[in-house]
Write a structure and sequence with these properties.
Blueprint (H helix, E strand, L loop, with lengths): L1 H43 L1 E7 L4 E4 L2 E12 L3 E12 L2 E6 L2 E6 L2 E6 L1 E5 L2 E10 L5 E9 L1 H21 L1 H7 L19
Antiparallel strand pairs: 1-10, 2-3, 3-4, 4-5, 4-6, 6-7, 8-9, 9-10
Helix pairs in contact: 1-2, 1-3
């Protein structure tokens, strides 16, 4: 019986140490991936501001953005002007972007709603501007490469935290060989002291 308890305590200690190592590794790897993603996005993002007439096109990040048209739309508490932008790569359709200029009625407020298309290599943002009075609309396009690295870094850090929390669960369940400062009063051997 004593041998079984000692074996359980040893297994719990090893699981906790292994979880701590994995937690540390995942967390720091996630931080590095996050920093790399921020650096790539900050260093290589591009922006294009161009007037487009229906049928006109602009290029950004290896994609072609073509303005199919602009039409009024109505929402529950707003009216809007919505552009339909066709996103293509190598002549193949990728997505339809529909940025809007909204006017809310109560309280009166004007906003722009960006359209975002995440792609494997980065994200494309489209914002509809004002008409230029000559049949064209100002369209602002943003290419933010490798945004997925930022999300991957955050997920790795969260996984590291989860592994660390689960790994210390064995010690908090009273299976650790010796009490630690974090839970000494809650440890089964020390309950009489509380």
């Amino acid at each position: 019986m004593l041998l079984a308890v000692a074996a359980m305590l040893d297994v719990a200690r090893r699981v906790r140490r292994r979880a701590q190592v994995w937690s540390l590794g995942l967390g720091h790897t996630g931080l590095a991936v996050l920093a790399l993603g921020i650096a790539v996005v900050s260093g290589f993002e591009t922006e294009v501001l161009t007037p487009l007439k229906p049928g006109g096109e602009a290029r950004i990040g290896g994609y072609v953005v073509r303005l199919a048209g602009v039409a009024p739309v109505a929402g529950r508490n707003y009216t809007a002007v919505q552009a339909t932008l066709l996103l293509e790569r190598d002549g193949q359709p990728v997505a339809v972007l529909q940025p809007q200029q909204r006017t809310y009625s109560d309280p009166v407020q004007e906003t722009t709603e960006a359209a975002i298309e995440p792609t494997p290599l980065g994200d494309i943002y489209a914002v509809l501007g004002a008409p230029d009075g000559k049949g064209a609309w100002q369209v602002r396009l943003h290419w933010k490469p490798m945004v997925g690295l930022i999300w991957a870094g955050v997920l790795l850090m969260a996984a590291g935290g989860l592994v660390g929390a689960v790994g210390t669960g064995a010690s908090r369940a009273g299976l650790c060989a010796r009490p630690c400062a974090a839970h000494s009063l809650r440890h089964p051997r020390n309950r009489s002291m509380a």
